[in-house]
Write a structure and sequence with these properties.
By secondary structure, the protein is α/β, with parallel strands linked by helices. The protein has two domains: 483 residues, ANL, N-terminal domain (Rossmann fold), CATH 3.40.50.12780; 121 residues, GMP Synthetase, Chain A, domain 3. It is built from 22 helices and 30 strands. The chain has an eight-stranded mixed β-sheet, sandwiched between helices. A seven-stranded mixed β-sheet has the order 5-4-17-16-18-19-20, sandwiched between helices. The protein has a four-stranded antiparallel β-sheet with strand order 21-22-24-25. Helix 3 packs across helix 4, helix 12 crosses helix 13 and helix 15 packs across helix 17. The protein is globular, with a radius of gyration of 24 Å. The two termini are 20 Å apart. The protein binds 5'-O-[(S)-butoxy(hydroxy)phosphoryl]adenosine. The site of 5'-O-[(S)-butoxy(hydroxy)phosphoryl]adenosine has 22 residues, from helix 13, strand 20, strand 24 and strand 25.
Length: 649
């Protein structure tokens, strides 16, 4: 954290700022700076004005009931999120493109709102026919194909909560998540295309649900056509067969404001992922409002978020936020470098994308590939760029604005989490003066602060823990099946204040500069991985006695996983074993968790009470001088490690 703070310091001295251009400000959805004060004076009224723009079967009696740490938003209201994302637009946008989809092999398809309506209704009826009812959980493990948002919206329509699992997760991870959510239905595909290869999704599912499982039925989308022989009679059915006879009308279920909309697993500081629960009305209002104001969505925008829907970014800002706004949302199935490194820019040119929302790790990768790739394409349709997932280094911010945004468009850095459901800290592009590397300020109505250990505001110019001091509509309501962990993780450090586990600094203007996680969570290319998950995957291997994992700074990925492993008596730390262990982690969790480096060590550095000192392991991995070693039980351990590996960098 100290180093990042130092580089930010250096940048601040440089002082580059980008106020909104008069042309952008003039046309922006919000350009009145008083909006911040107005929202402060009456934040409930502020959120309810967005809610008034949406459709309700019954309006709320109370905007917010706050019984810390439990919030209820729009209490007493009845609505349906699928109705708001689809049906609501049929009167005025029936033939407007809702989803523009491009597959990796180059196939593409446009769904108008009317098309989307029919497909969502049909699939909702399919699920009803399979016995799915309100309150059930449905697990979805699909590639980036249109059936994914269709299935999510169909769940929302009938009141079943979806649990989407990112296609990169392994059979073990799928199994844990299915078991935790007790889903009866699993929706998957035979495979997905990724960098010219086929991701064997159906095979992974078969492995995940072999033996005892709550899954009774599996719906399979045919995408790659390579796995027909894997269909199991009595359990598996093709999506297209089921859709054939299904009715194109399905009344949306009137849902209570606080009914669960979905759950989404994310990593915490233990080995067990948390099923973050989001509910109906607040989530809808929060994602609607932030998409409208931060991305400045307009009727003729072509909005593209490059994330995978398997992560919260895709839930909130490919599906729910844009569609509740009646926007055109672009979806791309594959990899940015297939068939060549200009694939993304070709997509922007082809569909005339006006807004692009991506991650710093992707921007840094493109920087490394070089300007020649974006230069091959006409990117002049772009009018706004966004960033999310990890702190964006100022160099990447400036490169993005210059080489993708033609040095003319605003770049909004948006801070939020799976738990927050919606963006909480970001510029309003028609108002805010941008600073490369800063997410700037909390969205109107959001009360964020930076505090010290004791919970006191550190004030301007200082650093500490980022906290949120007032409820916001899309906030998580609980951890599925584990209400104690919900309280413990987020609400126990400071009374009645949400603890983000991120470090932050505020500059003299009050702008926020995010500094990364302060807990044992690693952020690899914007994917959250817990050091504990990697450690338990490693000790699961028969040769491993003990292990400790850390995040090491990485030029492209932000952070990379590095593991230290103690082998069982008599086992040799060969290169073969090293590779085998890396593979083992990828098989247990998913390839994004594969350690970049594994170091074998006779012992791990521990305090006298037995706590592993990860800080010292980070020093070793990053080739730094060792920090304070006085609390170590045996200082020799880390010295030996340093000697062995210290000059590898
Ligand atoms: C963690 C949340 C929110 C969607 C993607 C990640 C980091 C996220 C930023 C940003 C600095 C950021 C934080 C946060 N993070 N956005 N703009 N600047 N850090 O969701 O997997 O729940 O991870 O990502 O550390 O706590 P997630």
């Amino acid at each position: 954290m100290a180093e990042q703070a130092a580089s930010i310091e250096a940048l601040l001295e440089e002082g580059r700022t980008f106020p909104p251009s008069p042309e952008f400000a003039q046309q922006a959805n919000i350009n009145d700076p008083n909006v911040y004060e107005e929202a402060e004076r009456d934040f409930e009224g502020f959120w309810s004005r967005f809610a008034d723009e949406l459709s309700w079967f019954r309006k709320w009696d109370t905007v917010l009931e706050w019984d810390p740490p439990h919030a209820k938003w729009f209490v007493g209201a009845k609505t349906n999120v699928s109705y708001n994302c689809v049906d609501r637009h049929l009167a005025t946008r029936r033939n407007k493109a809702a989803i523009v989809w491009e597959g990796e092999p180059g196939d593409w398809k446009v769904y108008t709102y009317w098309d989307l309506y029919r497909e969502v209704c049909q699939f909702a009826n399919v699920m009803k026919g399979l016995g799915v009812t309100k309150g059930d959980r449905v697990t979805i493990y699909l590639p980036m194909v249109p059936e994914l948002p269709i299935a999510m919206l169909a769940c929302a329509r009938i009141g079943a909560a979806h649990s989407v699992i990112f296609g990169g997760f392994s059979p073990d991870s799928i199994r844990d998540r299915i078991e935790d959510s007790q889903s009866k239905l699993l929706i998957t595909a035979d495979g997905g295309f990724r960098r010219g290869n086929i991701v064997p999704l159906k095979r992974n599912c078969d492995e995940a649900i072999a033996g005892d499982t709550t899954i009774e039925q599996v719906v399979v989308v045919r995408r790659t056509g390579h796995a027909d022989e894997l269909m199991q009679g009595g359990r598996d059915q093709w999506w297209h067969d089921l859709m054939q006879g299904a009715s194109q009308k399905c009344e949306p279920e009137p849902m209570d404001a606080e009914d669960m909309l979905y759950m989404l697993y994310t990593s915490g500081t233990t080995g067990k992922p948390k099923g973050i629960v989001h509910t109906t009305a607040g989530y809808m209002v929060g994602t609607y409002a932030t998409a409208k104001w931060i991305f400045d969505l307009k009727e003729d925008d072509v909005y593209w978020c490059t994330a995978d829907i398997g992560w919260v970014t895709g839930h909130s800002y490919i599906v729910y936020g844009p569609l509740s706004n009646g926007a055109t949302t672009v979806m791309y199935e594959g990899s940015p470098d297939f068939p060549d490194r200009d694939r993304w820019w070709s997509i922007i040119e082809k569909y005339g994308c006006t807004i692009c929302y991506t991650a710093p790790t992707a921007i840094r990768t493109c920087m490394r590939w070089g300007e020649e790739y974006p230069e091959r394409h006409d990117l002049s349709s772009l009018r706004l760029l966004g960033s999310v997932g990890e702190p964006i280094n100022p160099e990447a911010w400036v490169w993005y604005r210059k080489n993708i945004g033609g040095d003319r468009v605003p770049v909004v850095d948006t801070w939020w989490q799976t738990e927050t459901g919606m963006i909480l800290i970001a510029p309003l592009p028609g108002i805010t003066t941008l600073k490369p590397g800063s997410a700037t300020r909390p969205f109107p109505g959001v009360l964020a602060d930076v505090v010290d250990e004791a919970g006191n505001s550190v004030g301007l110019g200082a650093g500490g823990y980022l906290v949120i001091k007032r409820p916001w509509p899309a906030m998580l309501r609980t951890i599925y099946g584990d209400p104690e962990r919900f309280v413990e993780q987020y609400w126990s450090r400071y009374p009645n204040i949400y603890f983000t586990a991120d470090g932050s600094k505020r500059d003299a203007d009050g702008d926020f500069w995010l500094l990364g996680r302060v807990d044992d969570v690693i952020n690899v290319s914007g994917h959250r991985i817990s050091t504990m998950e990697v450690e338990s995957a490693l000790v699961d291997h028969p040769t491993v006695a003990e292990s400790a994992s850390i995040g090491k700074n990485h030029e492209i990925k932000g952070q990379a996983v590095v593991s230290f492993v103690t082998l069982k008596e008599g086992i040799d730390g060969t290169d073969d074993l090293l590779n085998e262990l890396k593979r083992h982690v990828a098989t247990k969790i998913g390839s994004m968790a594969r350690p970049d480096d594994i170091f074998f060590t006779a012992e791990l550095p521990k305090t006298r009470s037995g706590k592993i000192m990860r800080r010292l392991l980070r020093d070793v991995a990053e080739g730094r001088a060792l920090g304070d070693t006085t609390t170590l039980a045996d200082p020799g351990v880390v010295e030996a490690l340093k000697e062995q590996y210290g000059d590898e960098e």
